[in-house]
């Protein structure tokens, strides 16, 4: 089913769910969901133990667990999100965070591994300590409550993605690394 154009949602793309902190995001979202009845949480990934996620979601009609999709479709879903969330317990430098930033979507993510090299806390989104559900909830609430802040952070993320993580710079950095 195609996502509705005017739908407001928080999105996580990734698997396996425990490493990506899907359970933490569900817990944070369930706390704030009553304040934002029109907002959904969409979880997109390959979840072979989907029943466990459904149990964590507690039957909430605001939480959708989506099946994997082809990358072009995933990019469309990312581009329409209000907020992209990735509260990972363990991570590298996730491309999906750059994809969200390049789509102009603000990011709330863990301050783990390579994520702080991508997301500028307070500029293009928010960084939260690993497993800190309270701060995750607070940062999501702040973004969902403030459309202008979402637009500003999304625009800054877009600028960063375009200026610091473009293909030309990647090739230059890779060539320098190989030459050293």
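^ structure tokens above, recovered residues below v
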């Amino acid at each position: 089913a195609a996502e509705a154009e005017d739908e407001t949602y928080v999105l996580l793309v990734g698997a396996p769910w425990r490493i990506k902190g899907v359970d933490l995001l569900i817990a944070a979202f369930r706390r704030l969901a009553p304040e934002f009845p029109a907002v959904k949480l969409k979880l997109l990934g390959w979840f072979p133990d989907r029943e466990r996620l459904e149990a964590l979601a507690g039957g909430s009609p605001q939480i959708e667990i989506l099946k994997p999709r082809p990358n072009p479709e995933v990019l469309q879903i990312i581009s329409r999100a209000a907020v992209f969330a990735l509260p990972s317990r363990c991570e590298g430098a996730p491309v999906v965070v750059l994809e969200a930033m390049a789509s102009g979507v603000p990011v709330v993510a863990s301050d783990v591994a390579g994520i702080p090299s991508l997301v500028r806390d307070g500029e293009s989104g928010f960084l939260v300590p690993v497993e800190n559900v309270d701060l995750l909830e607070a940062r999501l609430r702040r973004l969902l409550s403030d459309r202008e802040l979402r637009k500003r952070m999304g625009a800054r993320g877009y600028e960063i993605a375009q200026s610091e993580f473009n293909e030309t710079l990647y090739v230059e950095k890779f060539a320098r690394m190989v030459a050293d």
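The CA atoms of residues 28 and 134 lie 7 Å apart.
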